[in-house]
Amino acid sequence: MSEETWLTTAQAAQALNLSQRQVTRYCEAGRLRTRKAGRRILVSAADVAALADELAVDIPRGGPPARRSELPVEVVRYLQDQTAAQRDALDRLQRIEERLSAPPPPPPPPEPFPWLRIALVATAAAALVAIVVILAATLL
Q: Residue 135, exposed/middle/buried by CB under 10 A (0-12, 13-18, 19+)?
């Protein structure tokens, strides 16, 4: 007695190059035998192979599935550029996070004589007033 092989609907869909929903419709129509394993629906591998022959689908035997077509060069370049831009953005974010997590710089030292600045400003203002008074006196 040979034991029959069963596939999940995802495996059957991949083998038939169909969506899982389309495989489920073939099951509901009675074209594929099914059985339940818990909550999963399993499909007979023999029925999948027969349907693949009917639909003229190549089922790869082992190994990765065959590629249908190559991506255009422009798409590949665009994806590479986007990947590089994302890497750059991540690098910038990491540098910003490093700066934000670093301790703040120490505050500047206090002025040794803050009253000196006030005195200089007052002296300069008095000098300007004196100059204005002298100029006013000479012009009158």
A: exposed
Order across the sheet with 6-8: list the strands. Answer: 6-8, 40-44, 34-37
Q: pTM of the full predicted structure?
A: 0.41
Scanning 34-72, the segments in alpha helix (DSSP H) are 45-55
**What totals of helices (H) and strands (E) does the chain contain, helices first?**
5, 3
What CA–CA distance (Å, rounded) separates 77 from 85?
A: 12
pLDDT, tens digit only, all 140 positions of the chain: 457 889 999 999 988 889 999 999 999 999 999 999 889 999 999 999 888 888 876 655 554 455 555 778 888 888 899 999 999 999 999 999 999 999 988 888 887 777 777 888 888 888 999 999 998 888 87
Residue 32 and residue 11 in contact, taking contact as beta carbons nearer than 8 Å: no
